Amino acid sequence: xxxxxxxxxxxxxxxxxxxxxxxxxxxxxxxxxxxxxxxxxxxxxxxxxxxxxxxxxxxxxxxxxxxxxxxxxxxxxxxxxxxxxxxxxxxxxxxxxxxxxxxxxxxxxxxxxxxxxxxxxxxxxxxxxxxxxxxxxxxxxxxxxxxxxxxxxxxxxxxxxxxxxxxxxxxxxxxxxxxxxxxxxxxxxxxxxxxxxxxxxxxxxxxxxxxxxxxxxxxxxxxxxxxxxxxxxxxxxxxxxxxxxxxxxxxxxxxxxxxxxxxxxxxxxxxxxxxxxxxxxxxxxxxxxxxxxxxxxxxxxxxxxxxxxxxxxxxxxxxxxxxxxxxxxxxxxxxxxxxxxxxxxxxxxxxxxxxxxxxxxxxxxxxxxxxxxxxxxxxxxxxxxxxxxxxxxxxxxxxxxxxxxxxxxxxxxxxxxxxxxxxxxxxxxxxxxxxx
Length: 436
What we know:
This protein has ten helices and 18 strands. The protein is 31% helix and 33% strand. Helix 2 (11-29) packs antiparallel against helix 3 (54-84).
């Protein structure tokens, strides 16, 4: 309904453009190099023109029919394109994050430039690693993620110099066979933990449809593996506190810290007292086109000290800061965003609910719908594999959830003949006893 209203409100502007096109068309069709009459006529508000002779008039009449036909053909398409053009909020800025910022030497840090486009529940996040300009070892230099409200489409572009180093002398012979980019598809609208810069930018500017109301529960922005991230138990409480110039969100953990058993690799939760797991602050807040925007954003993530049970003894494990350099409204690109031409290595996770953690395939035609035969045919050749199993394989351990049922079936198959023999022997013994 709102889209229809916006389209109707924009119709006067479109009609004005079309009227100017008709005026230009009239000038083209009625232009004459020779003046044979002094009779003036005015058409569609143009300046008076000279009426031509009969031969020239027939020529112009044909021109008018030709151009008029073109206008009639393309006018509906022009109206459709105008109405389909989506206007949203576009944010540009720079950001940085630091891992273990309170250490004497932080574990890792990175700087990015970014652009975030917002339109309702849809969004586009583009980021570029600034350090790649001076560090040729950075592999993923740029990423573009887009969400249509149902799935997240992520494409990452690699640094050619880093790729050359990785392949060494073989690069020239195989470069035409290498993918031009790597793409991933995730279900839902909450970005995965990796790449962490995507999740943080989404949390800073596009998470309003997830962290709604004054309080609630949601998944926290944290660097965990996908099996933990998509687990229903992985969530925290959040609380909003607002002032005139700032907004703050506080994330509260119930004390269960997700982790992995070192020996088996299985997911487990460490039990601690409830604590504050994260605090995000937006300052210099404003609103544009009904969208809340903070020109500065800072987020800190905390974890309890291992040697303390006091919920206030916390260690800052992550610090994220970003500053907006421009805030404007503008046309939003199509979602999902276009893929580059060439071979794209796809990792598709849209089938998690069906028991497939991922399927890999090559695409040369862009994003492929989940119901496409090419995609579904990949499932028939793959065994069921959960995210837990995928993580176990990555650790080099055997996926326990899949082996237990198989083990029970094998034991049952071996024990069944023995049970049948025992039952038959008991039955024969009772039968002979009755005869005696």
